[in-house]
Design a protein that fits this description.
about 375 residues; alpha/beta; seven-stranded mixed β-sheet; 15 helices; globular
């Protein structure tokens, strides 16, 4: 059975395989034994290998050891966990915050706790898979509106009453690199008395004057928004979080199965996350360098994620492999991660890329695409 399914995936250009990275996640990495320019990492600010994060993690291991050994509600909550949650809440401008073990666990755990059967969720068609899975697990009815289509969302809100209602959206869409129209979404949530949850995974550390995300980018001041995000992208460590009212966080302590029934993240990861937020707050030059690099690579891009639409699965894979031969690592993204017929190269720019590396990548990209046209 497995062999037949794998063969079918291969014939469709959808077979995936793991590649081995033999170095830290930097602007250049050792991939399968070869040094390449890395243009597919979510390590946007280059913090995953930052000396201050490594020092913080090392000191935490010396004091707390390598594992938390229990769930947060048993004995897994260290002093550092509380310190990180207070820091996230301060950074996001909310009353409180709660750390989850991954962004996926956060989305699944938050959504399935907020709504259930008889309730309705309104979600963007291009929301991340973890959001979709959280919606399915909740048992609530899921209404997916066309990507960033506010007229369609309002129509759905008018037609679907009864029960609790939740609007959920990515703020920066991970495969398209565009930004959700948050001011309009906030207005609709207030007008139709809906809860609003935003996934700031790819916006935190990047957007906004202080890197606080799309909420800051749009200068949105509403206090009842549920802020979800990850620690594993621009922040450079691992885990997910939710920030919001104190009542929300207490509710999730008691209702979120993804939080309740899993061992806590180790103190080393938590300490590194605290150090990362310190760097983001105190070293704005990193964010400025990221945006300088984004504009150098593509002056029209609104974020650090730059998709190059190819369409055909096999062609996207071939271009990706040819680029790798040229020393440039850009992954081919294919269904089901993106819609059928929309295979693409997903390019991500980092603060730590040099202009020379970016120019080399641009030259190689143009060369290979033109030859494969």
């Amino acid at each position: 059975m497995f062999r037949q399914e794998l063969k079918k995936l291969e014939e469709q250009g959808l077979l995936r395989k793991l590649r081995e990275v033999g170095s830290a996640q930097g602007a250049r990495i050792i991939l399968d034994g070869k040094e390449v320019i890395n243009l597919c990492s979510n390590n946007y600010l280059g913090l995953a290998d930052h000396p201050k994060l490594k020092e913080a993690a090392t000191e935490a291991i010396k004091k707390y050891g390598t594992g938390a050994s229990a769930s947060r509600l048993i004995s897994g909550t260290t002093t550092l966990h509380k310190k990180l949650e207070e820091k996230i809440a301060g950074f996001k401008g909310t009353e409180a915050a709660l750390v989850f073990n991954s962004g996926y666990a956060a989305n699944v755990g938050i959504i399935s706790a907020l709504v259930s059967r008889g309730d309705v969720i309104f979600g963007d068609k291009l929301n991340h898979a973890s959001i979709v899975d959280g919606c399915i697990l909740s048992g609530a009815r899921l209404k997916r509106y066309p990507h960033c289509d506010m007229a369609a969302l309002e129509k759905m809100l008018q037609e679907n009453n009864g029960g609790r209602r939740l609007i959920v959206t990515d703020t920066v869409f991970s495969m398209d690199g565009d930004i959700a129209p948050l001011p309009e979404i906030v207005k609709l949530a207030k007008k139709y008395d809906c809860m609003l949850m935003v996934d700031e995974a790819h916006a935190t550390g990047v957007l906004g004057e202080n890197g606080k995300g799309a909420i800051e980018h749009f200068n949105i001041k509403e206090k009842d928004i549920i802020h979800m995000g990850t620690l594993s992208k621009a922040i450079g460590t691992f885990g997910g979080y939710v920030a919001g009212s104190g009542e929300l966080i207490e509710f999730l302590y008691n209702k979120s199965r993804a939080f309740i029934y899993t061992t806590a993240l180790p103190a080393s990861v938590i300490a590194a996350s605290i150090a990362a937020l310190d760097v983001i707050e105190n070293e704005p030059g990193l964010r400025r360098q990221l945006w300088d690099n984004i504009r150098f690579f593509d002056k029209n891009s609104s974020t650090q994620i730059i998709p190059v639409l190819i369409g055909d699965n096999e062609k996207a894979l071939k271009i990706s492999m040819r680029l790798l031969d040229e020393g440039v690592f850009i992954q081919a993204i294919r269904p089901p991660t993106v819609p059928k017929g929309q295979a693409r190269l997903r390019i991500t720019v980092m603060a730590t890329h040099t202009k020379e590396d970016l120019q080399t990548a641009l030259d190689k990209l143009r060369k290979v695409i033109n030859e494969e046209a």
